[in-house]
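INTERNAL AUDIT FORM
Audit reference: QA-55
Scope: verify that the stored structure record matches its stored sequence.
Auditor: D.O.
Record contents follow.
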Amino acid sequence: MNDSLDGSERQAPRALERLVERASRAGASDIHLQMLGDSAQISFRLDGVMTPIDTLNNPLAERMVGRIKYLARLKTYQDSLPQDGRIGKAELGCASDIRVATYPTVTGEKIVLRLFTGAPAKTLRDLQLPSAACDDLEAFLRRNCGLLLLTGPAGSGKTTTIYACLRYLAETGGRHIITVEDPVEQIVPGVMQTEICEARGLSFATASRHLLRQDPQVLVIGEIRDEETATIAVRAALTGHLVIATLHGGSCRTVLERLLVLCPDKYAALSSTELVFNQRLLRRVCKDCAGQGCENCLGTGYQGRVPIVEWLRLDERIRREARENGSETIKVCPSLQDCAQTLVRDGITDSKEYQNMFSS
């Protein structure tokens, strides 16, 4: 991108294509374009970190914004209210569709482009989880019923783990698998996938309630947000369904606490839950420059991310202790810190990443 493109409206389409191509090549998950009066700042979200990339003069920036809105079928004249849309992959020669979100700010409009990967879902072994954690995940997925809860903050890799589970289930075959997602980020062959739409009244709870009538053997719920969805997940897991869901919490213990708050039947909630996964992502030291910063990592010293996890496999002893003494008695080993320290020791990540994750 450079200011020489500023002279012609015809160059905005090509400039946008080059921007998306550059972001895809760098492995960015999002492109941020922020209008700043007489210019615009472009940043990529690389490995979870906002990285400034370029500054555009206003004429080209405005034309690029107009081009994005046009392709996403948004109102090009509307800049005082948020808008959401999608750009089809054929429009920009991408591997998959791009989700577009606009938002008004005091310095001008902000646009975020979410780049969905067109690559097949990773396998569980591709995730580079600790081998024991992967073994427990696969053992759960071979079951006929039970509840798996995945937790972690936004951007912690939960969705990637879910898609790896879906690929494992689809490749194993023989079961009817239904998902409820917000949004559907990857198409998994052999899986019936549903995207919720709150504006049309299709929430996680509504979709989950009706999808149980579609005779699923495996139900994936993108997020448990309320009591109704929690109750549906627990009852389904107790009545012969394998259920995978995310639930926000800071640890395996606090996830169980939240489930017990959301689900009125505490006994059923503990009885249905088989496995709890809590994960984060740490940036991987760039192999090409050993963390010094190079063109391939855009000078960051990091390229890609690796998960750290703590997990809890519930058995009758743990369930009994939780019923009698509460979830605060539950201890998880190894912890997230233990997992991260192993990666630092092996040179996969570094102490700076470790400190950034756990300093607070």
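Auditor finding: record pair retrieved intact. The first strand starts at residue 30 and ends at 35.
Action required: none
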